[in-house]
């Protein structure tokens, strides 16, 4: 006790704003449930496992710790207890996720380092300051829990501004309790009742081609009648009914829905719920990942354990992150940087005061957690895996999307990860594990004069379009479509087993990338006029690791966006040597520099092509969002605008009116943001265009550049330009032969919903990483990937 009193000055009473890490060690994945429990520093409130607490004492000289140990209570009748299905897309609240947690006995004691002298808690013999400090630590919400709760609780539906004074026509319409059908087609599901005139119409097309025929949306566009309720969601529990406001472009609450329904003779108390609401469908996607082929469901797969086979627990729509990190920590650069050449103790020694906020520390912690095998062991429910909450918090810091609990695009996260890791390793190419993923793209543009220009920039992935006309099973496809058309006429549906999907070779996708394409509105400095040029693209260097993204979202029939239901035949080994670009060739003449630049008129405020806007609006998108899509793709066409919309649906201001302020002058662009983009390897003029199009936001500007590859060649080309930084001279190069080492598959109708799974070639066999489930692959879905990772074959 005297030893504790001698160190009272090192004990702090936590304030409400203090972050208390009592759930997990900040340098490992040890928890109070681990063998040695968890030690909470009573000065910094950081948590440490038994193996690591001495490191903190050496670094901070804080000797007083609260030792927390949790041991699971025996539950003999646990298997007989029915599991509750979540009814709310939230966690830690009634009806939400996480209500089936087993119960634990918790013990506490005070421990004083370096001798690990222990004192019992609670005890009246302890100094009052210690008792008060420990009580507050025990009662406080942990740092992880606070963030978890804040991120997960779903937004409450707003009361529609159109509900209270909604006009309802006295047109004598009476809606029957059953037998509904769309007034304009034969659809009998996904039907919406317009609450103004009583019209029953089908809903929107869904990206995968399912859903309705857009008749309810088109009716609103013609009549401007604002509210509709989804038939099949109406029951005695009116709060569960799905009411949609077209002007507000969201699901809303109608406080007097009962009155509005009675106008059309609907007695809601007698109706039964037969369809899922929009929110329930989202919840269903989050709780039932029943995509059989990609997840190899129903296969008798062998669970795998040990170093390199540690699963990552889904934190709530975090599978995009888990899939990418499993692949990255299967590559030599990331294994070497954060595991083989850096110990946990070394990373902690050089970390900032709060290691939970240090990217290098959390990358090292994650690497050792995944690769050591310490946390990969069988349990009652299979492998428990590790929860990468601290890593997610630091890698997503200040990012509005990755810091949320919403599903994200795995490719966007991969690119974000590369950026963050490079920023954390500035100028040190030996430490930077991302070097092996970078390569130089070279674009060659030739105008009708015969003269050419070259442009180079760095990238770390290739996006490949899928040329369906190159399908290798055209005869089978034609036969299937004829059969399907005949069955449709008879009112029959094709079974899943009978569906024939196009099979496109990866070689055709690569050829489409490197093939020539027209560049309209190209300003030729040789002709002093705009013309149509031809652009070809190649790789100046070949990276150690080549990442390919398959562009599966395209425009379908009737200009409806959909996800391509297609197989990509991917060989185990590819050779892209033919895609190498060798720069200016003998006999080629470069376009002159700066000719007639002074004759160019000042750029006018961009105006959206109304034809593009109206077609997008007819599909059901917000009008202002359609305008932005047309402007940000330079009115290139409907497909380009649609692709832009699909990748910006989560922008917070996507549906807001376009600002009518005067166009900003050149000097209003933030120079720091401009230089940041230029440092990424983008041309300065393209960077300016991107910052203007994205309102100065660097993240969105970067995305704009990647989604507008034509921008670098559609601007005035003065001559051959090199936008590769001097700092990029270290980029690796070598053979164009690669072997497939991993792929990430996506299930769902959009990259921002559904589920991601990784398959990785480890120790000579393919392994599936499905969150915390790790097993030997039995039926490899190699033809269904979204991201493919190739490793160069050494000469």
UniProtKB/TrEMBL annotation:
<feature type="active site" description="Nucleophile">
    <location>
        <position position="319"/>
    </location>
</feature>
<feature type="domain" description="UBA">
    <location>
        <begin position="607"/>
        <end position="648"/>
    </location>
</feature>
<dbReference type="InterPro" id="IPR016652">
    <property type="entry name" value="Ubiquitinyl_hydrolase"/>
</dbReference>
<keyword id="KW-0833">Ubl conjugation pathway</keyword>
<dbReference type="InterPro" id="IPR001394">
    <property type="entry name" value="Peptidase_C19_UCH"/>
</dbReference>
<dbReference type="InterPro" id="IPR018200">
    <property type="entry name" value="USP_CS"/>
</dbReference>
<dbReference type="Pfam" id="PF17807">
    <property type="entry name" value="zf-UBP_var"/>
</dbReference>
<feature type="domain" description="USP">
    <location>
        <begin position="310"/>
        <end position="793"/>
    </location>
</feature>
<dbReference type="InterPro" id="IPR038765">
    <property type="entry name" value="Papain-like_cys_pep_sf"/>
</dbReference>
<feature type="binding site">
    <location>
        <position position="185"/>
    </location>
    <ligand>
        <name>Zn(2+)</name>
    </ligand>
</feature>
<feature type="active site" description="Proton acceptor">
    <location>
        <position position="755"/>
    </location>
</feature>
<dbReference type="GO" id="GO:0004843">
    <property type="term" value="F:cysteine-type deubiquitinase activity"/>
</dbReference>
<dbReference type="InterPro" id="IPR050185">
    <property type="entry name" value="Ub_carboxyl-term_hydrolase"/>
</dbReference>
<comment type="similarity">
    <text>Belongs to the peptidase C19 family.</text>
</comment>
<dbReference type="InterPro" id="IPR009060">
    <property type="entry name" value="UBA-like_sf"/>
</dbReference>
<dbReference type="InterPro" id="IPR013083">
    <property type="entry name" value="Znf_RING/FYVE/PHD"/>
</dbReference>
<feature type="binding site">
    <location>
        <position position="215"/>
    </location>
    <ligand>
        <name>Zn(2+)</name>
    </ligand>
</feature>
<dbReference type="GO" id="GO:0008270">
    <property type="term" value="F:zinc ion binding"/>
</dbReference>
<feature type="binding site">
    <location>
        <position position="202"/>
    </location>
    <ligand>
        <name>Zn(2+)</name>
    </ligand>
</feature>
<dbReference type="InterPro" id="IPR015940">
    <property type="entry name" value="UBA"/>
</dbReference>
<dbReference type="Pfam" id="PF02148">
    <property type="entry name" value="zf-UBP"/>
</dbReference>
<keyword id="KW-0479">Metal-binding</keyword>
<dbReference type="GO" id="GO:0016579">
    <property type="term" value="P:protein deubiquitination"/>
</dbReference>
<keyword id="KW-0378">Hydrolase</keyword>
<dbReference type="Pfam" id="PF00443">
    <property type="entry name" value="UCH"/>
</dbReference>
<keyword id="KW-0863">Zinc-finger</keyword>
<dbReference type="Pfam" id="PF00627">
    <property type="entry name" value="UBA"/>
</dbReference>
<feature type="domain" description="UBA">
    <location>
        <begin position="668"/>
        <end position="708"/>
    </location>
</feature>
<dbReference type="InterPro" id="IPR001607">
    <property type="entry name" value="Znf_UBP"/>
</dbReference>
<keyword id="KW-0677">Repeat</keyword>
<comment type="function">
    <text>Recognizes and hydrolyzes the peptide bond at the C-terminal Gly of ubiquitin. Involved in the processing of poly-ubiquitin precursors as well as that of ubiquitinated proteins.</text>
</comment>
<keyword id="KW-0862">Zinc</keyword>
<feature type="domain" description="UBP-type">
    <location>
        <begin position="158"/>
        <end position="268"/>
    </location>
</feature>
<keyword id="KW-0645">Protease</keyword>
<dbReference type="GO" id="GO:0006508">
    <property type="term" value="P:proteolysis"/>
</dbReference>
<dbReference type="InterPro" id="IPR028889">
    <property type="entry name" value="USP"/>
</dbReference>
<protein>
    <recommendedName>
        <fullName>Ubiquitin carboxyl-terminal hydrolase</fullName>
        <ecNumber>3.4.19.12</ecNumber>
    </recommendedName>
</protein>
<dbReference type="InterPro" id="IPR041432">
    <property type="entry name" value="UBP13_Znf-UBP_var"/>
</dbReference>
<feature type="binding site">
    <location>
        <position position="182"/>
    </location>
    <ligand>
        <name>Zn(2+)</name>
    </ligand>
</feature>
<keyword id="KW-0788">Thiol protease</keyword>
């Amino acid at each position: 006790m005297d030893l504790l009193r001698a160190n009272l000055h090192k004990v702090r009473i936590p304030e409400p704003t203090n972050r208390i890490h009592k759930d997990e060690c900040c340098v490992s994945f040890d928890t109070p449930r681990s063998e040695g429990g968890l030690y909470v520093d009573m000065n910094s409130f950081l948590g440490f496992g038994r193996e690591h607490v001495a490191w903190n004492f050496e670094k901070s000289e804080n000797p007083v710790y609260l030792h927390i140990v949790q041991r699971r209570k025996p539950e003999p009748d646990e298997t007989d207890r029915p599991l509750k299905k979540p009814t709310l897309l939230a966690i830690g609240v009634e009806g939400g996720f996480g209500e089936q947690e087993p119960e634990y006995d918790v013990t506490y004691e005070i421990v004083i380092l370096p001798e690990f002298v222990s004192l019992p808690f609670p005890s009246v013999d302890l100094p009052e300051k210690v008792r008060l400090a420990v009580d507050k630590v025990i009662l406080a919400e942990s740092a992880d829990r606070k963030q978890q709760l804040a991120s997960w609780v779903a937004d409450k539906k707003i009361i529609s501004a159109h509900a209270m004074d909604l006009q309802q026509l006295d047109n004598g319409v009476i809606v029957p309790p059953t037998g509904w059908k769309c007034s304009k087609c034969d659809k009998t599901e996904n039907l919406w009742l317009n609450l103004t005139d009583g019209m029953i119409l089908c809903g929107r097309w869904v990206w995968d081609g399912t859903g309705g025929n857009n008749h309810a949306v088109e009716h609103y566009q013609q009549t401007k009648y604002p509210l509709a309720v989804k038939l099949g969601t109406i029951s005695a529990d009116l709060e569960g009914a799905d009411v949609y406001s077209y002007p507000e472009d969201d699901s809303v609450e109608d406080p007097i829905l009962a009155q509005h329904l009675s106008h059309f003779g609907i007695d809601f108390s007698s109706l039964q719920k037969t369809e899922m609401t929009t929110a329930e469908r989202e919840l269903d996607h989050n709780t039932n990942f029943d995509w059989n082929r990609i997840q190899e469901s129903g296969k008798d797969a062998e669970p795998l354990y040990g170093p390199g086979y540690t699963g990552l627990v889904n934190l709530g729509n975090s599978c995009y992150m888990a899939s990418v990190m499993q692949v990255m920590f299967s590559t030599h650069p990331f294994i070497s940087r954060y595991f083989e050449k850096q110990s946990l103790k070394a990373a902690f020694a050089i970390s900032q005061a709060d290691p939970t906020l240090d990217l290098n520390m959390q990358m090292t912690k994650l690497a050792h957690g995944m690769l050591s095998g310490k946390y990969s062991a069988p349990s009652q429910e299979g492998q428990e895996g590790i929860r990468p909450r601290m890593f997610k918090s630091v890698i997503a810091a200040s990012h509005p999307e990755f810091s949320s609990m919403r599903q994200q695009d795995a490719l966007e996260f991969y690119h974000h990860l590369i950026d963050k890791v490079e920023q954390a390793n500035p100028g040190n190419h030996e430490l930077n594990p991302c070097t092996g993923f970078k390569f130089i793209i070279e674009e060659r543009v030739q105008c009708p004069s015969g003269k050419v220009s070259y442009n180079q920039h760095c990238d770390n992935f290739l996006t490949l379009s899928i040329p369906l006309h190159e399908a290798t099973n055209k005869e089978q496809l034609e036969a299937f479509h004829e059969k399907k058309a005949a069955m449709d006429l008879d009112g029959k549906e094709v079974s899943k087993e009978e569906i024939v999907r196009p099979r496109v070779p990866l070689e055709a996708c690569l050829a489409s990338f490197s093939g020539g394409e027209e560049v309209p509105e190209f300003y030729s400095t040789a002709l002093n006029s705009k013309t149509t040029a031809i652009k070809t693209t190649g790789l100046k260097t070949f990276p150690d690791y080549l990442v390919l993204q398959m562009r599966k979202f395209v425009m379908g029939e009737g200009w409806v966006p959909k996800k391509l239901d297609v197989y990509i035949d991917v060989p185990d080994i590819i050779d892209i040597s033919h895609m190498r670009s060798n720069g200016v060739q003998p006999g080629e003449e470069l376009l002159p520099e700066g000719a007639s630049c002074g004759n160019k008129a000042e750029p006018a405020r961009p105006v959206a092509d109304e034809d593009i806007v109206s077609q997008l609006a007819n599909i059901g998108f917000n009008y202002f969002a359609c305008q932005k899509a047309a402007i940000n793709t330079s009115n290139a066409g409907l497909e380009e605008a649609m692709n832009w919309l699909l990748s910006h649906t989560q922008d917070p201001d996507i549906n807001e009116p376009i600002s009518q302020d005067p166009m900003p002058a050149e000097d209003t662009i933030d120079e720091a943001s401009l230089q940041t983009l230029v440092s990424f390897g983008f041309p300065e003029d393209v960077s300016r265009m991107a910052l203007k199009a994205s309102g100065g936001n660097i993240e969105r500007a970067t995305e704009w550049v990647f989604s507008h590859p034509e921008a670098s060649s559609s601007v005035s080309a003065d001559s051959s330009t090199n936008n590769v930084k001097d700092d990029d001279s270290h980029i690796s190069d070598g053979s164009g032969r690669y072997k497939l080492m991993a792929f990430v598959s996506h299930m769902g109708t959009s990259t921002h919903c559904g589920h991601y799974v990784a398959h990785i070639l480890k120790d000579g066999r393919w392994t599936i990483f499905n969150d915390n489930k790790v097993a030997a692959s039995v039926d490899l879905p190699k033809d269904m990937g979204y991201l493919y990772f190739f490793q160069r074959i050494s000469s």
